[in-house]
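Sequence decides. Our protein:
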Amino acid sequence: MATQIFDNDFLHTHPIYQNVHSTLVDVSNRDYAMAPFDKRIECLDMDDYEAHYVQNGANDSTMDAVIGIANYDNNHKSDSSLLMVELRLGYQSAKNITALSLNNKVKHTMTLLNAAEFPISQDAIFVFKAEACQQAKHKLDALGHSNTSRRKWIVMSPDIFGKAYMAKEDIPYVPLHDYKAVLANFCRLIDSHLWDEVEKDFETWGVNHH
């Protein structure tokens, strides 16, 4: 299964990046004076975009930020998309959250991002402090039957978020082929006189044995 990474390069391709680019740390600091995120994660500041570039905009009608993400498997990046993120780090309780508010935030953000042109993740992330996550998960699950946003509402703590979307540079290099294991298996086949299997190995590695 592919690991997911944050993908700043893909984020840079969105046309509003030049106007409202920021970092998740800066967006978090603005509202909560806390920034439990990787400083390297760039984002679109959707509140800024709503306030300054949308006619009659209101900064409570969008998700807070949008980051780029991608799958990363065997040192290869694929399936880049945009991920909507709402920061609720100051919330002690989730009881006042409504389905209408969540639906409006997700749908409006997707409209601003031009979802027809840019792939947007099927997940919409809501980041709560760790101690509020359990209640928030129960609340959002209970509201699930009213979710018309066509995106899955996911609750995460900052710590879980950091583990879910890592930097490519922080993922250990995984060689496509473990050459020591291949050599050991090749020797085993020869010792066992399994010549058909030896021939298959030759073909796999493109060795001309004629």
Remarks:
- Residues 177-210 form one domain.
- Residues 5 and 165 are 4 Å apart (CA to CA).
